[in-house]
Amino acid sequence: MRLVLKSTTRGSILNWGKRRRMGGTGPFIPILGVASCVVFIYLSFGDLWPAYPVGPAWSFVQRNGTRFMLDGKPFYINGWNSYWLMDHSADNQRKHKTTAMLEAGSKMGLTVCRTWAFNDGGHNALQVSPGRFEEKVFRALDHVIAEAKAHKVRLLLSLVNNLKPYGGKDRYVKWAWEEGVGLSASNDSFFYDPSIKKYFKHYLQTMLTRRNTVTGLEYRNDPTIFAWELMNEPRCMTDPSGDTVQNWIEEMSAYVKSIDKNHLLTVGLEGFYGPKNPKRLTVNPADWAADLGSDFVRNSKVSHIDFASVHIYPDHWIAHRSFEDKLSFVSKWMLSHIEDGHYELNKPVLFTEFGLSNLNKDFQPSQRDWLYKTVYDIIYKSAKRKRAGGGAMMWQLFVEDMDDSNDDFGIVPWERASTYKLITEQSCKLAKLRGAIEENQNLKELCLRKQ
């Protein structure tokens, strides 16, 4: 049972004592005993009560056709990925990195951060085993959400990984196999095994109805959460037709919406076109992309999916091509998906990951600037034309002294002035289109300096 201590309680305790000293009547000793217990509980378990200022009420981000909307205005996203926020918040020695990252993102005018709301098994596991959750780690996620609100940043929370890091579908399959209920040892059985789907639905129910121990809000009622993402980069190699993933998306999206009707929902796709969309196959980076069991248009058309998601990794997908060719591919890739969002889906398209590896043999830091500029320019032009490009989120940002968590795509943005300038200029350009610079003090200060 969650205790709720109203703000007037401490004052009432003092008033009881004051009345007694002034000769008041009443059962003072029993009341004092109860009051002492309340004070003891408050001092011992203070984290059961909100520790953050409530501030102005936030609205949920919604969508109207191909555009995200907030408070009656179009909402364009200049965002970023920091997958590690919950993991670091579960460790007191690293917890401050979460606050530092969210504060830095806010000061750069970034409005949405995508991060993991899962860790299945292993170190700092949120879900230790099916239906068994580690409260310490859940409180770490509570902290992430509360810190995001305090810094005026919204969160895109991903719910499971297609890949093995942080558990992913591999962990679910192993759990079912270990319990003797799994149909197959194939990782793809995550999408069709009834026992595994039951595990995942229980996880969804627990996540969506979680009551934040810091803010007091259930996650499904908290507008700090911009949207949910069903899975990071779903693939089903054993069924290239795409039917297995399609059925899973339809079932799980309907289940999420049966519990949470407030938040937007996306799939978490990379954006590849499948074999049932032949006219778009030439847009794929190569033939292999059509055999991964996903299909951008078909998957994104599911009625409970509110917006489409796309990733951009030209150096991995067409590694043998020149950098100029890679930039040309990025333009073609983005414009194709924005066009699909406008004409085929009537939904926004959010480019939820884009980046460039520093392990490329010809890598130069300036290449990242060119990639960022290409992505940002296309998003801005789409927004100006009121098309379906809803925004873009770089993979990924860190603060200083995080080499143990970084990868070959990560950056500390203020370490390179030209990159920092590109990011912050995009924030101001999109905010100006929305007419919302005055609504956020960080944006106001940032953008006035740039005028």
From TrEMBL:
Residues 59-395 form the Glycoside hydrolase family domain. Its main location: secreted. It is found in: Secreted. Signal peptide: none annotated. SUPFAM superfamilies: (Trans)glycosidases. One of its GO terms (molecular function) is mannan endo-1,4-beta-mannosidase activity. Gene3D superfamilies: Glycosidases. Its EC number is 3.2.1.78. GO terms for cellular component: extracellular region. It comes from the Eukaryota. It catalyses: Random hydrolysis of (1->4)-beta-D-mannosidic linkages in mannans, galactomannans and glucomannans. Keywords: Glycosidase, Hydrolase, Membrane, Secreted, Transmembrane, Transmembrane helix. It holds the Pfam family GH5_mannosidase. It is an enzyme of class 3 (hydrolase). The chain crosses the membrane at residues 28-45. GO terms for biological process: polysaccharide catabolic process. Belongs to the glycosyl hydrolase 5 (cellulase A) family. This is mannan endo-1,4-beta-mannosidase.
